[in-house]
Write a structure and sequence with these properties.
Elements lengths: L5 H9 L11 E4 L12 E11 L8 H15 L1 E8 L2 H9 L5 E3 L2 H11 L2 E7 L5 E2 L1 E6 L14 E4 L5 H13 L4 H4 L2 E4 L3 H9 L5 E5 H10 L7 E6 L3 E2 L3 E3 L5 H13 L4 H9 L4 E3 L7 H15 L2
Parallel strand pairs: 2-3, 2-4, 8-9, 8-10
Antiparallel strand pairs: 1-3, 4-13, 5-13, 5-14, 6-12, 7-10, 7-11
Helix pairs in contact: 2-10, 3-4, 5-11
Length: 307
């Protein structure tokens, strides 16, 4: 029977792979760092923006902080960097007015849109496209040749609301009339795609579902663990994880944030930050781009209702 084995996970905590305990919220007010602001930031104002721990590998966090410092410079208001490792927590903070914006996955966006009217701000364009994929990973020397070969094996998800890190593989299993509980020997939640990659590379699990952009980023910048994995299967394309805002966000602030993101690639400083993040630019995106994610969620809801 499927189980999330915290006893097994204790050993992995020491290796920095996963943790059973929820991390405390970390907030960092971004300082000027010697930069000259185009608009003098208002000391009393704070724009709280969350970057989920799942959205970027650990070494990529510094670039998100650089990006938010850049956005702070352009909008003339202090930005408070909010670090949370659960999409559910980020969505709750957006719903209750404790965040002005967040970088989230496409799965949490569609859930938040349906529940409390979460709105799109912008989305990144990477490698010339606004789509990404779920990669089903195995170790490079694994004998698995198809997703079906992972039956009875250990598997890693990232976050319960993640599109590529959970929804896609669960949908794949449901199409096979299977569930994670029946199909896999055990499953774990790593809380980040880079930790899932590391878990596969080190043999902690036999397979994992990860965000293609994060695998490709690490493979290009630090392939220590990606080089020890193999892409067993690639999903259909999905709209990229967006930057989102609450429905009731001040319209003036929303417009300033949007313009700062959309124009970043036109400025030498912004362009350099985006280049390090492997992002071409930020673009406007239509809500309908996420309909394929909704269809999977809806299909699974109907499937579960039949049980």
């Amino acid at each position: 029977m499927h189980k999330i084995v915290c006893a097994f996970m204790v050993g992995m905590i020491a290796m920095g792979l996963i943790g059973c305990e929820k991390k405390k919220e970390k907030m960092i007010v971004l300082g000027q760092n010697g930069m000259t602001f185009k608009k003098q930031p208002k000391e009393e104002a704070k724009v709280r923006i969350a970057v989920g721990g799942m959205i970027t590998p650990k070494e990529g966090v510094v670039y998100y902080r650089d990006l938010l410092r850049y956005i702070q410079d352009r909008i003339g208001e202090k930005i408070e960097y909010v670090d949370r490792e659960s999409y559910a927590e980020i969505n709750e903070m957006l719903e209750t007015g404790n965040l002005e914006a967040a970088f989230v996955c496409s799965g949490p966006y569609t859930v938040g849109r349906k529940k409390f009217g979460l709105e799109l701000l912008v989305a990144p364009q990477a490698y010339g496209a606004t789509v990404y994929y779920a990669y089903i990973l195995v170790a490079k020397d694994s004998g698995a040749r198809s997703f079906q070969d992972l039956r009875g094996k250990r598997f890693a998800f990232t976050d319960p609301l993640s599109n590529t890190g959970r929804l896609v593989p669960v949908y794949m299993l449901a199409k096979m009339n299977e569930t994670p509980e029946r199909f896999f020997k055990t499953t774990i939640f790593t809380q980040s795609h880079d930790k899932s990659i590391k878990a596969v590379a080190q043999g902690v699990v036999d397979g994992a579902a990860v965000d293609s952009l994060i695998w490709e980023y690490l493979n290009a910048t630090n392939p220590e663990f990606t080089s020890r994995t193999r892409i067993l299967q690639r999903s259909p394309a999905y709209a990229l994880p967006p930057v989102v805002v609450p429905r009731n966000l001040d319209q003036g602030l929303k417009a300033r944030l949007k313009q700062a993101f959309l124009n970043a690639h036109l400025d030498p400083q912004g362009k350099q930050i985006l280049r390090k993040m492997k992002i071409d630019r930020f673009v406007e995106i239509d809500d309908r781009a996420y309909d394929s994610v909704r269809k999977m969620q809806h299909w699974l809801e109907l499937k579960n209702a039949e049980k």
